Amino acid sequence: MIIYARPTSYDYNKVLYSTFLSGVLAEYFTPGYDRYFFSLRSSKTLPGWASFDGKKLREIRNKDAKELTDYQGALENNLVFYTPKIRLTGFLRRLDTFIQSFRIHWPLALSDFRDKMGWPNVVARVSKIHRAGWGIVLNGSVFITGPEESTPHQALIRRNCGRIIRVALSNARKDKFILSVLRLLPLRFARIAVFKRNYRKRRLSNFGLGEDLIGVIQVKRLTKIRVPDICGSKIEIKGRYRIAWNAAWLAKERNR
After folding, report:
1. In sequence order, which residues have a C-beta less than 8 Å from that of residue 104 and are 6 or more positions away?
2. Domain residues of the chain, as ranges?
3. Where residue 19 falls among pLDDT bands split at 50, 70, 90?
C-alpha cells in the first residue's frame, strides 16, 4: 500500500512520531499488505519516505500490543527519511508545537462556538470573480449546514444571506495575486447557488434543479447585467438580496 502524506512541521521528531503512528493505524484498518510505504511531500522539506513491514506489524498487533514502543522493528531500517529545509532547536521547536496545536484545535473551537451561537457552517465550493468597470462580478456555489448538522431551513438562509456572499467572495479573492486589483474593487453583482449537501465541483456546475439545491441568492448593483431566475422558483426580496427558492427543495421542506 502506498500512502501519500503532506507533513506540516519542520520538526523531524514530530514527523517521525506521526508517520510511525500512521503506519500502525494503516495496518490495523487495512490489514493484509506486505508493505506500507509512505510518500512524504511538503513545501517544508525535500521529498521523503518511510516504509513498514506489513507482516511484522500484523504479528505485533496479534500479540495484543498495548504501547507504540511494542512496534519497534516494524519500520524498515528504523528510519523515516525526512529532511526539513529549516532545522528547529530549543525554543523554536516548542513554538512549532504551539502553532501546530493551534491549527488543529482552532477549527474545532470555532465550530463549537458556531453551534452555540446558532450559526450555520458555510463552505465555498466554487467562486469566481471578474472585473466589470469599477467593480467586480461574483459567481459561485456554496453548501450550508445548520448548527449541529441540522437541516437548513428558509429562516436560516434569510438570516445569513450576507455571510454566504462574504464567504464566497473571500474564497474567490484569496486565489488572486496579492497585488491584483480584484482584491480591492467593491462587489457590484453576485449570484450564489446554495446547496444543502456537498458535491464535487464538476457536479455542481451542471447540477440542475435537484432537491439539494436550496436556491440562488443574488445581489445586483449593475443594471446592465440581466440574469434569469431558476425555472419554477419562488422569488423573495430581503433587503438588497434577491432569493430564488428552488421549487424541488421547497416541496421537500413542506413534506418534511
Report:
1. none
2. 2-78, 118-255
3. very high
